[in-house]
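[step 3/7] inverse_fold.run input=structure_tokens len=263
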């Protein structure tokens, strides 16, 4: 059975508007410190960018939306002279960095929006491909978030989405370390605790069919980046899990990157 907090969107007392505003503001405040976040997630960003590029190569698209685009590392390399990309992030700091990373010869092909996706307006079926990486843990309601995405994809369009399976053994270990860290530095808000079975139910609910997936994990050990540099940590992930085209040891991975199509 789906956990109630997934279906209900982690609802807390107060109006829906107040809940959304409160969590959105807290999420925005975390990601406004863009340099710190980007430095701490270099390995994840590199793995995700490579996987998204390999997924995108298997789909036909011209109009792309990147929700929670960060500095644009994941979606900007996908641009072609005939495609159009919408970069969206609620962090003004991230958007500023993304703008600076747009190749000059592709400037006319890119729209940048500093907005909360759940409050933004788009015409229905506006996109062939939507990317959402590093976002699911932070949205107010995973159910409502996927519903909004489904409305924006054209029939037969594709979604590349990433999430962490907190029920996986690696996810449980990471959550344990995170809980211990919060005794010293309490989190600003509770991230969504998702699992693959719960996400699979949500995909089905919104007419999304899983086409393929890539799973990986990073060492859930606090402070390991002080002992090993980012290149070494990336190399460990690559040696353990391979790439989407030659993946291995998937059962060890709690980070899911999924390619879906909408019926």
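[step 3/7] decode complete -> sequence:
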């Amino acid at each position: 059975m789906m956990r109630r907090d997934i279906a209900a969107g982690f609802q807390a007392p107060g109006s829906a508007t107040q809940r959304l505003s409160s969590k959105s503001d807290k999420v925005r405040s975390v990601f406004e410190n863009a340099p710190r976040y980007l430095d701490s997630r270099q390995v994840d960003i590199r793995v995700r960018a490579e996987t998204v590029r390999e997924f995108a190569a298997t789909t036909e698209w011209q109009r792309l939306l990147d929700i929670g685009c960060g500095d644009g590392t994941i979606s900007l390399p996908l641009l072609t002279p005939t495609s159009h990309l919408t970069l969206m992030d609620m962090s003004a700091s991230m958007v500023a960095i993304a703008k600076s990373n747009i190749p000059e010869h592709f400037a006319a092909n890119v729209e940048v929006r500093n907005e909360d996706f759940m409050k933004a307006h788009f015409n229905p079926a506006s996109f062939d491909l939507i990317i959402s990486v590093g976002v699911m843990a932070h949205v107010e309601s995973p159910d409502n978030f996927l519903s909004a995405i489904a409305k924006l994809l054209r029939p037969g369009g594709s979604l590349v989405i990433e999430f962490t399976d907190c029920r996986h053994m690696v996810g449980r270990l990471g959550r344990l370390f995170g809980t211990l860290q919060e005794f010293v530095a309490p989190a600003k808000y509770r991230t969504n605790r998702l699992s693959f079975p719960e996400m699979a139910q949500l995909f089905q609910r919104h007419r999304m069919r899983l086409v393929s997936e890539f799973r990986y994990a990073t060492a859930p050990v606090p402070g390991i980046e002080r002992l090993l540099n980012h290149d070494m940590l990336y190399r460990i992930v690559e040696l353990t899990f391979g790439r989407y085209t030659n993946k291995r040891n998937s059962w060890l991975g709690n980070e899911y990157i999924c390619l879906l199509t909408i019926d």
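[step 4/7] annotate
The domain at 4-262 is CATH 3.40.50.150 (Rossmann fold).
Residues 1-20 have pLDDT under 50 and may be disordered.
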